[in-house]
Amino acid sequence: MDLGTVALSDSTKEIVIIDQTKLPGEKRMLRLSSVEEFYNAIKRLEVRGAPAIGVFAGFAMYLCACKIEADDFDSFYAAFSKDRDYLESSRPTAVNLSWALGRMDRVAKDHKDEPIPSILEALKSESILIQKEDEEACKAIGENALTLLKPGFGLLTHCNAGALATSKYGTATAAMYLGHERGYDFHIYCDETRPLLQGARLTAYELASAGMDVTLECDNMVSALMASGKIDAVLVGCDRVAANGDTANKIGTSVVALTAKHYGIPFYVCGPMSTIDPSVKDGSMIPIEERDPDEVTSMWYERPMAPAGIKVFNPAFDVTDHSLISAIITETGVFYPPFSFGN
Ligand code: MRU
Questions:
Q1: What three-state secondary structure class fits 209?
Q2: In 88-212, at which residue ranges do the beta strands (DSSP E only) sit?
Q3: Would you kindly state where each structural domain of the chain is located, as residue ranges?
Q4: CATH number of 140-335, picked from 3.40.190.10, 2.60.40.10, 3.40.50.10470, 3.40.50.2000
Q5: Which ligand 1 atom sits nearest the alpha carbon of residue 48?
Q6: 144 pocket-lining for ligand 1 (C-beta < 6 Å)
């Protein structure tokens, strides 16, 4: 479960990540040091998954700050804010990005009367803390989720909310890792997750590598799978949870939730408290990223699988209505409906 998702190399002033676009065929590490490289890594999904993006953003702001040449706080902060805004524009949906950038921003401002080297030390400590907290949160989410599951359960997950999307354990997968260690003998099913195949390329890869019993199926097989009686619970991650519990997660999640409701299967959303955004009243206010049409028409195929120039609808996320969610599992506990995450 320790896949080297995101690591800070302070001695070389780089972030080292596993390039998730190359998995499962190739385990290629990337060493990134400029703000453009950081932006592109998020945009191109070389690093992805809400918590991992947050951890990455913390390290990125520390390394950006190290490069700033300034004699006073005001000029330091002007350059720092420019980098922060640029990184924040890389992807809109996962709130963990702006949450981590906001944390780094606050630390810079809290130390504004200190010399620049002290500000850099404080930023480094904060970025390391964000990663440590993420690892602890994921483990706690796993413990909390495990209280809702029984040995031998069939579990379905969508996209990748695994170790590759966090510092360790994952969110939706944390109970799977912990259950595996404790002999729960889960049977895990992964939706392949069109169009970018995070379920097939990443979740199936990391869970199978850990020795779990994993079965892959296409997204459109979910109803057949549930009808077969093989699924006892669904566990998914989240990119932003609104105050009323509406949850943005990888495109297709809401279809899984609707289908689970039909079959009476519990549908659990797993995520750290940092993914809850109380400033957003309901899901209609969550910005949804739209991505390149090529992801639908030609990516992964040897030749295009749609007519040239066809119009394409390619939202990267959808919102699952709170009424479809059985519980939201965080590091602080399990929240049941009616959800209310107000400020
Ligand atoms: O576009 P991605 O791959 O970043 O989308 C990831 C998801 O939707 C995950 O389910 C979510 O970020 C939670 S990761 C613990």
A1: helix
A2: 154-157, 187-191
A3: 6-139, 140-335
A4: 3.40.50.10470
A5: 4
A6: no
247 phi and psi, to 5 degrees?
-130, 125
In words, the CATH class of domain 6-139 is mainly alpha
Mutating to test ligand 1, I would choose from 17, 19, 160 the residue with most ligand atoms within 8 A of its C-beta, which is: 160
Task: Tell which phi-psi region holds residue 274, choosing left (phi > 0), alpha (psi between -120 and 50) or beta.
Answer: alpha
What residue has token string 């001695």?
11
Mean pLDDT per 10-residue interval, the chain, length 343 residues: 86 97 96 98 98 98 98 97 98 96 98 97 98 97 98 98 96 98 98 98 98 98 98 98 98 98 98 97 98 96 95 98 98 98 82
